[in-house]
Design goal:
The protein is mostly helical. The protein has one domain: N-(1-d-carboxylethyl)-l-norvaline Dehydrogenase, domain 2 (Orthogonal Bundle). It is built from seven helices and no strands. Helix 3 runs antiparallel to helix 4 and helix 4 runs antiparallel to helix 5. It starts with a helix and ends with a helix. The N terminus is likely disordered.
Amino acid sequence: MPNVLFTLKTFDEARDRLYSSSDNFVNSLLGIGMQAIAEAVALGEKAGLDRNRLLDVLSQTAVVAPAHAGKLQRAMNNDYTPQFPLRLMNKDFRLILNLAEAVGAVMPAARAAFKVNATQAVRK
């Protein structure tokens, strides 16, 4: 599949294409953050911390984005209904990683998050 950025004729076309895909940037950031929170909660539980107390504390910290705070509240209520399909998250990770490769950017966190999501998508 040809890289779409290199098939465009002008800088303006490329810029417009990037701006139109800004949701991919946002979604990949949210996906990476959600995986980091899930790992922190899993570690806390394995270390013997009370799950609900840990979720409550995390939801009040400055490092947890407001977009994730609601997800922590859902977890406290044992509500794990999907809020964003894995296949779409994987699509956004794939697009971001393709762009990163095209421009020579290294994104190890996005690559690792994509691998985790892809593994989960296969299990479903």
